[in-house]
Amino acid sequence: MAIDRVVVEADGGARGNPGPAGYGAVVRDPVDGQVLLERSDSIGVATNNVAEYRGLIAGLEAAAELGAARVAVRMDSKLVVEQMCGRWQIRNPGLRPLAARAAALVDRFDSVDFEWIPRDRNRHADALANAAMDLAAGRNPRSVPPTESAAAPAGAESGGAAAVAAPGSSGVRSWEPRPADTATRLVLVRHGATEYTAGGRYSGRGDVPLSDLGRAQAAATGRRVAELAPRVAAVVSSPLSRCTETARAVAAAVDDPPVAIDDDLIECDFGAWEGRTFAEVRDRWPAELDRWLASTAVAPPDGESFVAVAARAAGAVRRLLSAYPGQAVVVVSHVSPIKLLLRDALAADDAFLHRLYLDAAGVSVVDYWPDGGVAVRSVNETAHLPTA
């Protein structure tokens, strides 16, 4: 679906100028700051300015992919902004082809506005660019902090979600008991088992149905959720059938509220790895797998990075906190979104993702308070599940 207006944040850099270089670009919804697309890549040896232009080009291309009509570009490169606005001449002949390429992309939109912003307002694109520079230098890429990916862009239009503390925000620090009735309780449920679960395969956007065991697990999970939250305001699910079937089983156990679908709760897009075993991926894509495991900013071939998954999952949670204050909501999703939400709720780093195991139909509970306070009540409960 085409989007009328987007915000593009872009950056690039080089270690040594010229040196190992890379760029990053983020396309956001201008209302709630949700990340819609992101792009990053290492470009070998280049200058800072070349990398910055490459970041701008990647951001404009991503905005065009979304069908945007109007674009607000924000960069901390004064040179690129001033040159694209025509106020500074392009004296470096190496930049002219890049500027012409960017200008051709600008002509594809109804309007493009450029704004210079300080670096601390461009942290997500800067972090993506730094991870790409690490790869260009042959180093393990650093992670993009989860608070960068979930933060609304500076100057974003106000919206209902803006008043809600983002998942992963530090909030208040206190050991004092809090009133439970003022918290929004999210009961996070991974879908029941499928054939891919049993076979140890990457299961992302493919619509793999529940197995017989998975259906039994879903029914048992519904009974457990009824104990944790007898009054459930909503059951919200990923659009894939393994989640919607699990969600319906849960809803049937808790007074049968309608199951709502939120596309942002869908699993990571594993691209070329979809449906393949872990061993197959290790054998065929060893370098790509190592890069992916080393950084949440790196996507599988033709797939999606965990930075992008974290951003959309956090956006879904912000909407739920705004819509259901002080109530209980069941969220039925997949391993990647749930791991990332728990990482942020615990204010953990990315190493947490490799150390947490989530079973099929496992249940985790997180309470969120309006002032940003977060309490993780349980992680991956499985005692309710039947054995195979």
Offer a few descriptive terms.
388 residues, alpha/beta, Nucleotidyltransferase, domain 5, Rossmann fold, 2 domains, 6-stranded mixed beta sheet, 5-stranded mixed beta sheet, 13 helices, globular, His_Pase_superF_clade-1, RNaseH_sf, Bifunctional RNase H/acid phosphatase, RNaseH_domain
Layout: helices, strands, pairs:
Blueprint (H helix, E strand, L loop, with lengths): L4 E10 L4 E10 L6 E12 L1 H18 L4 E6 L2 H7 L11 H11 L4 E6 L6 H14 L9 H5 L33 E7 L4 H5 L12 H17 L3 E6 L3 H13 L5 E3 L16 H7 L1 H9 L11 H18 L4 E6 L1 H11 L5 H5 L7 E6 L5 E8 L7
Parallel strand pairs: 1-4, 4-5, 6-9, 7-8, 7-9
Antiparallel strand pairs: 1-2, 2-3, 6-10, 10-11
Structure commentary:
- With 388 residues, the protein is of the alpha/beta class.
- The protein has 2 domains: 5-158, Ribonuclease H-like superfamily/Ribonuclease H (Nucleotidyltransferase, domain 5, 2-Layer Sandwich); 180-381, Rossmann fold (3-Layer(aba) Sandwich).
- Helix content is 36%, strand content 21%.
- It contains 13 helices and 11 strands.
- A 6-stranded mixed beta sheet has the order 8-7-9-6-10-11, with helices on both faces. Strands 3-2-1-4-5 form a 5-stranded mixed beta sheet, sandwiched between helices.
- Helix 11 crosses helix 12 (335-345).
- The longest helix is centred in the first third of the chain and has 18 residues, at 48-65.
- It is globular, with a radius of gyration of 22 Å.
- 50% of the residues are buried.
- Residues 145-166 have low confidence and may be disordered.
